[in-house]
Amino acid sequence: MSKKAFLCALFCVLSSFLVAAGEARAAILTARESALLQRINAVRSQHLLPRLAVDRTLVRAARAHSRAMLQQDVFAHGDFAGRMRAHGVQFPRLAENLAWGTGSFATARWMVTSWLASPGHRANLLDPRLRAIGIGAPVGIFSGYPGTAMVTTDFGG
Question: Cα 38–44–46 angle (5° rounding)?
């Protein structure tokens, strides 16, 4: 095998690993979570801010909190710092947005628009120091409403 053919084959193999790694990162989010990420990053792009990167530790923390809120029928941040420590989150700067909704109020567009209308939530979405995100958006029964999307977005920077 010539050196050129070998290098071409090596490039193809390495490229396939890079594509697989990118797909694995994308696959850690559900369709609902991915829609939220796309919407959030679109808003950040409109404000000339960098896109948020998905962080697995933040995803685990966000999903656990959303599941707990559904199971306990509560909607609250609770001990945010304690939850982050318990999940091994290492970012020096952290923030969190919560939302819940059913039907058209459970869409990424509605939730992100609602956050943008709230000064504190808007500040979290548009904070240039925050560079990573974890999203949890399980669906269940909340306050008697079946089909509720319970959303936690945890940010790190």
Answer: 105
Cα separation of 111 and 133, whole Å? 16
Query: Domain of 109: which CATH number?
Result: 3.40.33.10
Does any domain span residue 23? Answer: no
Residue 79 resides in a domain: yes
In this predicted model, what pLDDT tens digit does every residue of 18-68 receive, in sequence order? 333 343 444 599 999 999 999 999 999 999 999 999 999 999 999 999 999
Our CA angle for 93, 80, 110, nearest 5°, is 85
Domain count, the chain: 1
Residue at 5 is within a domain: no
- Residue 132 domain boundaries: 29-156
Specify the pTM.
0.83
Whose tokens are 């890079």? That residue is 18
Distance CA 89, CA 138 (A): 21
